[in-house]
Design goal:
This protein is mainly beta and 862 residues long. Helix content is 7%, strand content 56%. The chain has a 31-stranded antiparallel β-sheet that branches. It has a 6-stranded antiparallel beta barrel with strand order 4-5-10-11-9-8. The chain is elongated, with a radius of gyration of 39 Å.
């Protein structure tokens, strides 16, 4: 490296450090004025004057203020395990061996305590044990504060103390120091101290300063400070330090991280946090690039116990790619909104409101690289829903606003709103007072449901353009199903049913042909129209059980269940010419083209044909009971050999040709309680000609087989997870769980030694149905999981392989290191569309969450 390059690198590093230091100074200079300053020499709070004054003999703390009262001696409680020595001449008490002293809210434990009742001063220290090590060092408690030290001197009158080799905790912070002065208001001044969030006796890192001032439940201030990692001083110096120490939320500046990308140097996630209340907070952050790009993010979290909680995130970015003179130069303006809201079930037991919104520009995640999962997502869905039930009544109501968006096709579907009103099943013929057996007509049940839909299907570029709302399609549908169940010969269930549907529209379609311009004109005619439809049906089913028992061996029984069913559905034709539902318009060739005025309607319209279809289906289930022999008993474990093996088809009694439908076969099972296997296949009972065109001749007659194979699909998945024995599903507090759910990509569970999920899929097509250039067999495998190399090292991975295309899918590797009070993250996409890497090392504590080093590679889209 040339001298110039080394100088440039040193200049950039030191310049950034001083930039952060001066930002801190100007941001918090108001908090470091008045009597809280570390540099005021005239006031009693001065660390320069008072700290030096307490470094002499411990008797320098003898009181010169008002006496505590004549009964001070009687208020002090003390005990000792070894011995208690009284010095009556000097009015002193010496306590040895696990000594304990208590006065008002002050409690002290140490191996040696000396009480001077005349001067109202105590002194405590540890004593050497048999090995020569000092044990029983003083532990001083006052209210919520606790100090650990080598020696301690405290004056009960002035409430001042002198402590050596202190160790104390303030919120998430730990403070250690050589010598400490404690003031009556519990403010402490520390000489040669260190500040850290590491809980270890010997911290992995700390910020060292010769002067530290701690104001309880407020802030911690330091003089010139230096960051030390693993006992090695770093080049990072700051003129002073400020660390918040308040309980609860408080507003403040969020300091940005810095880095470099293809858009230039940047400051990221800097802004301001608003600690508005215990129920509501907000943060406004931004990102600025030196080449002109910028982003703005606004986030708010809200929570009200036993009522509701949620968060709202809005993002807007203006990103510049390349340079203005180059052909790939472009400016992308993207936005994205995320809103999650949930209502506590106790708030309104009979109604609920929830929201899950993910909406924005189709190119947002492609231009704003946040995570692999977000980049691969090509569909956004949103739902805002409300529901209500009426206790002791059969009514229920639900309404929702829905959104669906495809980032590949740019299509957008909005349902604003969707509403349903339901009346659950009632039995109008059932007697109010039941006597004897229930008659068949008493089982007749009637229910009602109505649905309203207001839908638009468009593209994101056309959304919210002038007149876009005219493309909404809306309608109201009513359904009245009537059904009952009849038991025939004890084992056969017959379920007849009738369903009536009516659809209401305020506009219908009209199509005309313009002969002069040779074009088709489509319009909407206003006016109320009702489309009616009806269907009748019945189903018949039963269950046949087969049981095979074994007297010897590990197998106890094998049970086979066969569930055959036959159903019939009849749909009459309720359409006649007078209704004007089906119409014709001429084409350019003079032929009349038929259309329905309900084409494209939300719920469609009635068919002008009738159908009469019989459905056949047989399902099988196979289970086994396995003997588990122990010293005291024999237990039976049920094992599912085959959860389902079903075959089905249908026959249309009114069809002129091809009355038989395709035959469907499906199977499903679970092996070893982990391996899920699903299989499905389709067969055609009709034959084909020499050109593979389907003909109305049965395959059984032409080729002597029941049906010909069309296609099949096999999928298998397995999930292998191992948890430590001491692992608990209660991973944290309610607030921690909210953080985990909000930032799932950042959560690493070190309690799980390994987790592996593998999914395999194979699709097969017959040679007859395969078109030119198409593969008959396609196979893919997908796997993801994580592995704990050590209790502190975790590796995560996500990849897959297409055996047909012979290429890897997007592959992601993540390396995580738990450094106790620090954490290290390295994410790597070695190849593919989003090739890149991210590196970050940061302090875990939220107090020092901005103390981090982040390095990201430039994304590659080669």
């Amino acid at each position: 490296m040339s001298p110039y390059s080394r100088f440039k690198k040193f200049f950039l590093l030191t310049g950034r450090c001083w930039l952060v230091a001066f930002a801190i100074f100007f941001s918090f200079q108001a908090d470091c004025q008045s009597n809280d300053s570390l540099h005021i020499n005239s006031e009693k709070d001065s660390i320069v004057v008072d700290t030096l004054n307490v470094l002499g003999d411990r008797d320098s703390l003898v009181a010169d203020s008002l006496l505590l009262g004549a009964d001070f001696k009687s208020q002090v409680k003390y005990t000792a395990d070894d011995s208690t020595v009284y010095d009556l001449a000097n009015d002193k008490v010496y306590l040895y061996g696990n000594a304990y002293m208590e006065y008002t809210d002050i409690k002290l434990n140490a191996n040696y305590i000396e009480l001077n009742f005349t001067d109202k001063v105590l002194f405590a220290k540890g004593l050497p044990d048999s090995s020569g090590s000092i044990s029983g060092k003083p532990v001083f408690k006052q209210g919520s504060e606790e100090f650990h030290s080598e020696t301690m001197t405290y004056n009960f009158e002035t409430k001042k103390g002198r402590i050596t080799q202190i160790s104390t905790q303030e919120g998430e912070s730990y403070i250690k120091g050589e010598t400490v002065k404690k003031l009556p208001d519990n403010t402490t001044f520390i000489k040669n101290g260190l500040y850290t969030t590491c809980s270890e006796e010997h911290p992995h890192y700390y910020i060292y300063s010769s002067k530290i001032k701690v104001i309880p439940d407020n802030k911690i201030l330091t003089g010139p400070a230096n960051l030390v990692i693993a006992d090695i001083p770093t080049p990072l110096f700051i003129p002073f330090g400020f660390f918040p120490n308040k309980k609860g939320r408080s507003s403040g500046i969020l300091f940005p991280a810095y880095g470099q990308s293809d858009r230039g140097f940047y400051l990221q996630n800097g802004g301001y946090y608003f600690g508005l209340s215990d129920h509501f907070d907000a943060a406004l952050t931004g990102e600025v690039f030196t080449l002109g790009s910028w982003k703005v993010n606004a986030q708010t979290n809200y929570s009200w116990r036993y009522r509701f909680n949620g968060n709202l995130i809005t993002n807007y970015s203006r990103l510049i790619t390349s340079e203005r003179e180059l052909p790939d130069y472009r400016i992308d303006k993207d936005f994205f909104i995320i809103w999650n809201h949930s209502q506590d079930a106790k708030a309104r037991p009979n109604s609920s409101f929830s929201a899950n919104v993910n909406a924005g520009s189709s190119s947002y995640y492609q231009n704003n690289l946040s995570s692999v999962n977000n980049f691969l997502t090509n569909t956004f869905n949103s739902s805002i829903s409300y529901s209500k039930i009426w206790p002791s009544k059969p009514y229920s109501f639900a309404a929702s606003l829905k959104h669906s968006q495809n980032t590949q096709t740019k299509s957008v579907s909005l349902n604003l709103p969707s509403a349903t009103f339901n009346v659950s099943r009632i039995y109008p013929f059932k007697k109010s007072i039941s006597k004897g057996d229930v008659r068949w007509f008493e089982k007749i049940g009637v229910s009602y449901s109505s649905s309203f839909e207001n839908i638009i299907n468009t593209y994101d570029t056309l959304l919210f353009k002038q007149g876009w709302e005219k493309n909404f399609m809306y309608g109201l549908q009513h359904n009245i199903p009537i059904s009952t169940t009849i038991v025939l010969l004890k084992y056969i269930n017959i379920s007849p049913s009738i369903n009536y549907a009516e659809k209401w529209y305020l506009e219908t379609k009209r199509i005309n042909y313009n002969l002069q311009e040779d074009s088709i004109i489509t319009s909407q005619k206003q006016g109320f129209r009702a489309a009616r439809d009806m269907s009748l049906g019945a189903s018949l089913g039963t269950s046949i059980y087969g049981l095979l028992q074994f007297k010897h061996g590990k197998i106890a029984t094998i049970r086979h269940v066969i569930r055959p069913s036959i159903s019939y559905a009849f749909k009459p034709n309720l359409v006649n010419e007078k209704q004007g539902i089906y119409r014709y318009y001429p084409s350019s060739t003079g032929d009349a083209i038929k259309y329905s005025i309900y084409d494209g309607a939300v719920f469609g319209g009635p068919s002008d044909s009738k159908s009469s279809v019989i459905n056949f289906n047989i399902d099988n289930n196979l289970e086994m009971k396995w003997k588990q022999v122990t010293d005291s008993s024999i237990n039976l474990k049920k094992i599912k050999l085959l959860e389902s093996l079903a075959i089905g088809t249908s026959y249309n009694l009114l069809a002129d040709s091809f009355p038989l439908s395709q035959i469907g076969l499906s199977a499903r099972t679970v092996m070893f309680d982990r391996l899920n296997i699903d299989y499905s296949a389709s067969f055609d009972p009709y034959s084909t000609d020499i050109n593979n065109n389907r003909i109305n001749d049965l395959e059984l007659d032409e080729n002597g087989r029941l049906a010909r194979f069309l296609n099949s699909n096999l999928s298998a998945s397995i999930n292998l997870t191992h948890r430590n024995k001491e692992y608990s599903s209660n991973v944290g507090s309610e607030q921690e769980m909210k953080e985990i759910n909000t930032h799932k990509d950042e959560y690493i569970d070190f309690n799980v030694p390994f987790n592996l999920a593998i999914g395999y899929n194979a699709f097969f097509k017959s040679e007859e149905t395969t078109v030119a250039g198409e593969k008959r067999i396609t196979q893919t495998i997908r796997f993801n999981g994580d592995l704990s190399l050590t209790p502190s090292w975790k590796v995560t991975f996500n990849s897959g392989y297409d055996f047909t295309g012979k290429q890897w899918s997007t592959t992601y590797l993540g390396f995580f290191r738990d450094l106790h009070c620090w954490e290290l993250k390295f994410n790597w996409i070695p190849f593919g569309l989003q090739q890149r890497y991210d590196f970050q090392i940061n302090v875990k504590s939220s107090v020092l969450q901005d103390l981090k080093l982040t390095k990201k590679s430039k994304p590659s889209f080669d």
